[in-house]
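Ticket #228: bound-state structure for cytidine-5'-diphosphate.
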Amino acid sequence: MKLPNIAIDGPAASGKTTVARLLARRLGLVFLDTGAMYRAVAWLALKNSADLSNDGALTDLAENCDMRIKPDDGELGYALELNGLDITARLHEPRIDQNVSAVAKVSGVRRNLVQRQQKMAENGGVIMVGRDITTVVMPEAEFRYYLDASVEERARRRYLELQQQGESITEAEVLEQLKERDYIDSHRSDSPLYLAEGVRRFDSTGKTIDEVVEGLSQECLQLLKGIG
Ligand code: CDP
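RESOLUTION: The complex was predicted; output attached.
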């Protein structure tokens, strides 16, 4: 029996990654954070001092890297190895936040990472989060959600996270960076972020993560029961 797949998209800091990780634990599904894969290519590009406006060079990096994602007990729930090096702790550095959307709008990079993602989901049982999961990677997923929240609330959440990590940045700066990333992600020509027909929008403004997880898991459990 093939388990269902769950696809979740949404703008930056909408809580989708945390929600999906908890949901995966609760439902016994595998969690895959596709943002980490784009972040890994951005990390590699910065490490190699690649020209971020050179689509061919960025595509080469994506096509020729050995990327492995393994379940892990740490806070993120996974570890990402790139060319044999564990770079999980580097993926959320502010310099990656600031450059990842430029890398992610390159079609060659997307083509390669989407292929890898589709392969990971081919046997079912995966909860995947990103920007194009409901529309391009798994438009056939049994459950498709768009997790949203107001930009001010998202900026507040991300600011608190960064403060905990000891980063010196103001809430106003975080808000500006989120707006910029959202703009690039939703206006790029290849696979932009949007709420597609048939995808359920879930607004988490004013809700706790637990409330969102509870709401989604009730729906998903119904489906899993129906299949089991
Ligand atoms: O966690 P947060 O929402 O801040 O970002 P993320 O999910 O880690 O994604 C980082 C960036 O990768 C996004 O801003 C997009 O530019 C890109 N991305 C994408 O283009 N397609 C995906 N499926 C996932 C991420």
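RESOLUTION NOTES: The longest strand covers residues 143-148.
TICKET STATUS: resolved
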